[in-house]
Amino acid sequence: MKMDFGCQVTGYLCDVEFDSDWNCLKGKVYWDARCRFACGAWVRTSVIRAVEEHSSGTFELVRTYSGSRYVICSWRDEEEAQACASHLHQ
């Protein structure tokens, strides 16, 4: 959380899955800046606009069409990360 992502972070997502039907992510959110969700709550993001790798190479930053920005801390598995990347680069 002390890392500078160059923007206001809406929340941190763990155990993330990609939903190709809705072009969104599902996962556990932590430290929701808008105080909508308790830490550890399961959420679905709005439609993904972009996924960018942080300069550290450790995290990815997701931008949604609603203006939220989430840090992906962990994917459920590598296949979820690959599905998201391939879907966005079609």
- Terminal-residue CA separation: 32 Å
Q: Pairing-aware structural class of the strands and helices?
A: mainly beta
* Domains (count): 1
Largest sheet: 6 strands, mixed
As a whole number of angstroms, the C-alpha radius of gyration is 12 Å
- The helix content is 10-25%
The count of strands amounts to 6
Oligomer: single chain
Total helices: the number is 1
Contiguous runs where pLDDT drops below 50 for at least 5 residues: none
Task: Name the overall outline.
Answer: globular
Strand content: 35-45%
Strand order of the largest sheet: 3-2-1-6-5-4
H/E series? EEEEEEH
Mean pLDDT across every amino acid position: 86
Describe the model.
- The chain is mainly beta.
- The protein has one domain.
- It contains 1 helix and 6 strands, in the order ββββββα.
- Strands 3-2-1-6-5-4 form a 6-stranded mixed sheet.
- β4 and β5 form a beta hairpin.
- The longest helix has 11 residues.
- It is globular and about 30 Å long.
- The termini are far apart.
- The model has no long low-confidence stretch (mean pLDDT 86).
